[in-house]
Predict the 3D structure of the following.
Amino acid sequence: MEPYSRYLEDKYFIDWVCSPTPESNAFWESYVNENPKEKEIVHTLKNVLLNLKTEDAFISVEEKQEILERILDRTSHTQIRRLNRYSPVKKYYKYAAILIIVITSGVFVNNSIGSREALPFSDINITAHDSIINTQLTFATGEQLLIEEEKSTIEYNHLGNIIVNQNDTISNSIANNEDEVESLNTLMIPYGRRSRITLSDGTIAHLNAGTQFVFPDKFIGDKRTVFLSGEAFFEVAHNNKRPFIVKTIEEQIAIEVLGTKFNVSAYPSDHEVLTVLTEGKVNVVEHNIFRDKRTLLKPGELASWHKGDESLDVKEVNTDHHTLWIQGLLHFESEPIVNVIKKLERFYNIRVAFGELTDEVTDTSISGKLDLNDDIEITLENLMITTGFNFETNNNKNYMIN
């Protein structure tokens, strides 16, 4: 833990964390740019110090020990999560009636949205979207609702109850209580499924396959915050006094709005976080060690945040290319075929391999429109007409392109 200890002995570092000034921000920003290997250390240590609410440049031995223990815990947790990315976890669920309720462990119980701790995403988000069968709504109590339809609707009505697929109503005791605490629920959309959820404020979120969405029964306080890993199209209910904030699985990037329509694609396996605005205004917020940077989007603009170098690009696009999926259509223009195949894999819950992954294949870009309401064989046949390639079926969910 020596890299952290030396910063704890640096009064100027502690003073900057406790009482930053333009001069100290400029100094440490320059320091990190000149010493990129120190960036993660500085970022982690600053977050831990802020969590402890340190207000003095002097830190006691006990406080230093607590800080180092917290860093060790955080580092160990991160390493475990990284290992889990490469260790597929299989979970099997029996097909069941739409309102089967089961008790699960290891879910989010009464988490506070305002926390500075790790974002509330389950490890299953990374490992098992292709192996779970049903859409899963996990409540803050730990109870879990399994929905077996390929397309589902969930609505939190004004009485605090939950209406599933416009038929079944579930009484929600947490939403009806008077406690001023936001209780988080988690909606998991596996590959091959889609869902539309209406939140308690009237906001509608269309959730694509392979998505995890974390939201409260009811919004409390001066902000409406939700968490997204995957892809969603939002129709945000307007509220001048309470901005709607989408935090993504990438802690450095978030979207803030008052009332508008926009699409966010933030899959863990993708190299970019994409935000496309169709109506209204949004701020794409980049969080870093020194300050938050806000980029205002206009309708018809796409913001691409690149994970590798943490840079943001904005350009004008045809928004249909990024939003027609909610109608079961895939519209693309000069799109690499490997990207199109990745979307098909998520949408249909299939696996597609290339017989020979040559430069000819990886460099192939295509334009067109696919109707994802068709069977996968028809969709692949239409795709092959565009590309000139052929496909064959290995088994029920595995296909080969050559």
Summary: Residues 74-117, 123-127 have pLDDT under 50 and may be disordered. The radius of gyration is 23 Å. The longest helix spans residues 61-84. Residues 353 and 400 are 5 Å apart (CA to CA).
